[in-house]
Each structure stands twice: as structure tokens, then as C-alpha cells.
Write a structure and sequence with these properties.
Radius of gyration: 23 Å
Number of helices: 3
Order of helices and strands: EHHEEEEEEH
Strand order of the largest sheet: 1-2-3-4
Structural class: alpha+beta
Shape: elongated
Helix content: 40-55%
């Protein structure tokens, strides 16, 4: 079993939360000026205020998502466990659609692994941990590639059976 912990900064999460609340209030203030009659002729300001308020609300709401907090990953032989703030999610390797290794110009500084399981995406950052990145990527590719190869073999068998 391989375990990996991704630590997320609470300072950046809180900064985005406060910035989103500020943008929402600022946009609401612009809308208040338009609807109170002080800036009734400035429809562009009202549209801009509505867009700013919507973006501020978007930032504020999305800071409460599970991927904005610390996440623990456990890679077994049969499944991948993701332990996050809202509980635990278990994926078998059949449910994982894609595993991508992002290799930067200087791969010794950082590396990234992107895991897609359905509509959910998990990004694993590795700063100065090239060996851990390679170990997890090899572990994932050995299990996900086997699934893809089995599907290809089954498709070839079906196509051979259909043709006389």
C-alpha cells in the first residue's frame, strides 16, 4: 500500500473566501446604487456589478469544496482510497478513466499526476519528491493499463466472432 498526503494551505483558502465575500458585497453595492436611483442611467455599471457579485459568490462557495482541504490518498492493489474533509471515497481501478503525468521542464523541482475518475479530477502535486511521483505513477499505470488491455482483447474477440 502506498500512502500520500496532500496538504492545502488554509491561508490561501481563507484569502479566497474573504476576497469572494468582498467582491460579492462590492457588486451588491453597485447594484444598490443602480436600483436606488443614484446611478440609474449607468446600466453598464449595473451589469458590471451583477457580474462582480456572481464571481464573488462563485469564489466564496467553491472554497468549501473537498479538494480545497487536506487530502490523503491510499493506493492498494485493488482500489484507490481518497480521504477528504467530507469523508472517504473509494475507487476501483476500473473506475479510473485516465492517469496523466505532467512533466515540467525541470522535473526534479516538481511533478504532477492528474487522475480522472468519472467527472471527478484529482491533482497530486509533488514538490522535490520525484521518486514518490514515479512510484505512484508506475503503481497506477500498472493497474489502469491492465484494464484497458483487457477491454481491447475483448473487443478483438467480439470482432473476430462477428466476421465469418
Amino acid at each position: 500500500m502506498i500512502r500520500y498526503h496532500v496538504k492545502k494551505s488554509s491561508k490561501s483558502r481563507n484569502t479566497l473566501r474573504y476576497f469572494g465575500a468582498f467582491l460579492f458585497l462590492f457588486g451588491a453595492f453597485l447594484l444598490y446604487l443602480f436600483f436606488s436611483g443614484m446611478a440609474a442611467k449607468h446600466i453598464f455599471g449595473a451589469i458590471l456589478g451583477a457580474l462582480i457579485a456572481l464571481y464573488g459568490g462563485y469564489l466564496f462557495i467553491h472554497t468549501f469544496e473537498a479538494d480545497k482541504y487536506d487530502i490523503d490518498y491510499e493506493f492498494d492493489d485493488q482500489e484507490m482510497r481518497v480521504k477528504h474533509r467530507k469523508g472517504e471515497t473509494v475507487y476501483t481501478y476500473d473506475q479510473i478513466d485516465d492517469v496523466t503525468l505532467v512533466v515540467p521542464e525541470n522535473e526534479m523541482i516538481y511533478s504532477l499526476i492528474l487522475i480522472r475518475a468519472g467527472r471527478t479530477k484529482y491533482l497530486l502535486p509533488f514538490s522535490y519528491k520525484k521518486e514518490a511521483c514515479d512510484q505512484i505513477y508506475k503503481h497506477l499505470m500498472a493497474r489502469v493499463t491492465v484494464k484497458e488491455l483487457q477491454e481491447e482483447i475483448e473487443n478483438e474477440k467480439e470482432s473476430k466472432e462477428e466476421t465469418p
